[in-house]
Amino acid sequence: MSNVLKLKPGEWDLSHLIKNPKSEEIDKELNRISSLIDAFEESKPLLTSGISVNDFVKLIKDSEKISEHLSKITSYAYLKYAEDTSSNSVAGLVTKMNNFSTEAANRLLFFDLWFKKVLDHNNANRLIEGVPSVYKDYLIHERSMSKYTLNESEEKIINILDVTGMNALIKIYDRMSNGFEFDYVEKRGKKKIRKRFTNKEKLLSLVRSSKSSERIASYKALLLVYKRNSGVLGEIYLNRILNWHNEFVELRKFPTPISVRNLSNNISDDSVTALLNVCRSNSKIFQQYFIEKAKMLNIKKLERYHLYAPLKSQKRAKIEYGKALKMVLEAFEGFHPEFRKIVQSLIREKHIHSKLQDNKQSGAFCSTVIPSINPYVLLNFDGTLRDISTMAHEFGHAIHSVLACDKPISVQHPPLPLAETASVFGEMILNDKLLQNVNKKEKRILLAEQIDDFYATIMRQAYFTMFEIDAHDMVGKDSSTTVDQLCTLYMNNLNEQFGRSMKVTNDFRYEWLYIPHFYHSPFYCYAYSFGNLLVLSLYQQFKKESKNFIPKYINILSSGGSRKPEDLLKENEIDITKESFWQKGFDFVSEQIQNLKNLE
User: Taking the chain, what is the end-to-end CA distance rounded to the nearest angstrom?
Assistant: First the structure.
């Protein structure tokens, strides 16, 4: 592990996906996929009510083979684009992959639609009972989507229009927002410090600065740019909502816009409603925390600029990348040696892009390509404690992916809410390790930062989802809704969220415009609330059961997407349809806030 200390932030090696992108390898691979689809299309005569289980399973495996080939080349394009969203050549490759993927999906659509809509109930059940158990829940879920599925020609039209319609608009949003430059003006007494930031992540790292002037300047620089571009970015979002409403509510007849995401996540509307209700009813827990935090910072009332203000006056020294890796690896080793080995394999294979660079995609992600290839992780590492937590979070995703790599590609990916389980658990493991090795003063600082993170990943994400519900409802009922009305809606959301605990200035009415999930994946954000509250419950279980808990936890992760989340969790005595379950997570947050007070 000593060699890890010498590592610097670097780039990833995508040669596991495409060995020589400058050759004709990509076009050859596209031709190979086309040939596989040609062969698959010849299976249409087999699709009768009397198809044998063996033939049906062979068709599933053949379609998975196509999916694997396709995922390798499309992932290569998307990962190259994440490195540099300003590259015209890579943007062209992404467009080419999108067009090819749409054509491939349309040619394969007949099999999916036959199973969902054409096949009768009795024979569908016969096949479900006969297939290997790993596919059972997946196929039951597929059949549950039948009533929202259109006929083949309509599905093809939607797929084709999405490439130049909604997908193109989202690409414009990404290229615009990732290319923004931010004029930073910090007021220190009579002096003004001016800087220009070309990297949003570097700017956003200052919202956790120990200097109030830096926190204010960073938020003002960020929000001013989004305000100036609110016309275009807001219009893209309005069209995102209209497209979602027209396709899913009007055409497919989903009961509500969020029901689309819930069904995709294989989770009932009731479970999500229970989650959001409990989050809303517990908003006072964090409001009280912010009042206490203001006292700890010796200020009368927090302003929104200072939500993430650390309980320290001195600037914490930046942590080197190698040291950060060592901290995470040691924390994971303490939980289970296999977790450390998985992360070390990512480092060894150069599957991590961690260095800061202009036009790189902001934030962080873990991308699973196919079961036989280790996932890729994107970080924007700048040496902050938050960056180390993000590292643990994304490596948690990677561990989840690798533990489920014995599953076929169709069921390797967990549904979104469970997808956040390993990532948040990874952060908890790291935080526990850090808290064990510090003095009382530093423990107080770290505990406050952990509670800040609970706010950011539970309450903030739940209120993001509540804003989306209200925004989709407003635009769905009135297509003439303006961007300014959405800004007012967002401010109302913030005022409810913070109550009287915090002053929210008017520039935060534009904050929603820089939340990419609103554009990329509507209603994604509740998965973070779900994942965090679930993990708080699981982590308390781990504390009680110690090493006896680990096999249960690994069983949850290794299931990937092969099980219905509610059923999988019920086997571990967790009922996500009950508000009392979600309340346990908030009870833990309350305990941590009390622990923080006791350290004063």
Answer: 37
